[in-house]
Amino acid sequence: MLATLFLGLTVSAQYKIGILPRTSPDKGIYEQIGYTGIEITYGAPKTNGRTIWGDIVPYDEVWRAGANDATRIEFSEDVEIDSNILPKGIYSLFIIPHESDAWTVIFNAEYDQWGAFNYDKYQDILRVEVEPKEIPLQEKLTYTIDGLSYEKGIISMKWSDVQIDVVINTKYLEILQREIEISATNSDQEIASVVYLQGAEYLLRRNQYLDIASKWIDKSQELYDPKSEWNSQYYPRQYILGHMHWTKAKVLAANNNYKMALAYANKMKNINGGEINYYSEENEFEKIDIQMAHWKSKQ
Fold this sequence. Notes:
Elements: H1 2-12, E1 26-33, E2 36-43, E3 67-75, E4 79-81, E5 84-86, E6 89-96, E7 103-108, E8 124-130, E9 133-147, E10 152-170, H2 172-185, H3 189-206, H4 210-223, H5 237-254, H6 258-269, H7 278-286, H8 288-298
Antiparallel strand pairs: 1-2, 2-3, 3-6, 4-5, 4-10, 6-7, 7-8, 9-10
């Protein structure tokens, strides 16, 4: 009788004991989108010829979004999902599949739990509705994180014949500004000037947030002190100054002020002294002469 009872329990219930290998082994993925790290840990079951949706995973019920423990997702920074802010932290990821409607994706504060047996809707931090997509057979449940840019990525769940995608927007610009300001504040004046210069150059290369690039290059010029004692471990002073003038020129040109852009470009070209000059070093890479000719044609 005891043997029969024990056998029945092992068939009808699941135990979180951790002695035997799991039939759906845990998997983990990590991706960084801009400054934001995203990590997902989940059990990866296989279809094994079974009908998954509406059978193994019932419709209209909360599913652990994997096997074994509830699927866990962690964000190192705040993110935006479907116009809602999800604070940085660790969450359980649950899914409610529906036969004909959009599926519900749930981020729940209680991240350390077995399956969805103790799921508490009052611990939900965010729910979003996502349209499922039909895909060719995916034997093993798989999550992927694809970074589309520093600002945006997609978290995808694929299993059986269904894929769902959750679009993630990061607080990239907000964090970038914070990092620039912290770095500049914690540096001496000459290094702070270079920090703002590098920030402006970075945004220019990506052709983004040119209003902020303009503010940063102005701050760089404001902090630059030609009389300060220059640290010999850095690029020579005349190289830094040339870089500053050229970055200012590009910001002005991006705002269609070609006359002033050319004035700053000529300042850069006319810097003399020292062995390393920004114009001579970077002309081939930056195509300075070509850009200046283009600006002249725009006047």
